[in-house]
Design a protein that fits this description.
A five-stranded mixed sheet has the order 3-2-1-9-10. It is an alpha/beta fold and about 230 residues long. The protein is built from seven helices and ten strands. Helix 2 links the parallel strand 2 and strand 3 (about 55-60).
């Protein structure tokens, strides 16, 4: 059976729709989300409901925890602006669903977390032979960095499917992975203009979504985009 792995959707429903359509076209039988369904963009309910409808098994990401658990990000005021907005708009049913996310899962022999195995929710993992030598298992997946990667360290394999909703590796296309005996890292285009429109309607200027144009590593307003709401 083909398995799809997605991560870091961050309320970007347009990107999620395109990824799910591609997974359907690939006849994927099961989908796992490695966390951060919510955060950043203006359609968190739509993302939650699409995943709930399909029975996607999700992990707790740091943004999921911020939004549903009552916390805030210590690193970014901009992240907290988005958290406050999403707390206002998320339905009680979707918040309750997010609160049930576990911090780790197994998919067969695969070990899944959002961050890393030292901190499942908020570790920015830097894969290396020494890191995985300390952990039982052979196949590992996590998200959080928004950087798509596939590494082999002897008998151990690590995959980060990248970010559906906010890639940070210089490729703005939505990222995901499929496993069918081996991992394939995949990308797909999506309708960014609809994301921009929904963010403007929610009251956010282009600083909050400009990074989507280039796949930049942080929130920014790229050259050529005006400051507007």
């Amino acid at each position: 059976m083909k398995i799809g792995f997605i991560s870091d959707i961050h309320g970007n429903f347009e990107a999620l729709k395109s990824v799910l359509a591609e997974l359907d076209a690939l006849n994927v039988g099961a989908i796992y989300c490695l966390g951060d369904v919510v955060g950043y963009y203006a359609q968190p309910n739509e993302c939650c409901e699409a995943l709930r409808e399909r029975g996607v098994l999700c992990l707790m990401g740091n943004h999921d925890w911020y939004v549903a658990g009552g916390g805030f990000c210590q690193r970014s005021r901009s992240v907290n602006d988005c958290i406050q907005y999403q707390r206002r708009v998320l339905t009680a049913e979707n918040v309750g669903w997010i609160r049930e996310f576990p911090v780790s899962r197994r998919a067969g022999d695969m070990r899944l977390v959002h961050g890393g195995w030292s901190d499942p929710i908020d570790e920015y993992l830097k894969p290396s032979p020494a890191y995985f030598a300390r952990i039982d298992g052979d196949v590992f997946l996590s998200g959080h960095t928004h950087i798509q990667s596939l590494d082999a360290f002897g008998s151990k394999v690590y995959c980060n499917p990248g970010s559906v909703g906010q890639p940070r590796d210089g490729d703005p296309r939505a990222a995901f992975a499929v496993y069918d005996g081996e991992f394939r890292l995949l990308r797909v285009q999506y309708d960014m203009e609809s994301v921009f429109s929904s963010m403007k309607a929610a009251g956010f200027d282009d600083y909050y979504y400009g990074c989507l144009v280039t796949g930049a590593g942080s929130l920014c307003r790229p050259p050529g985009m005006s400051s507007r709401k």
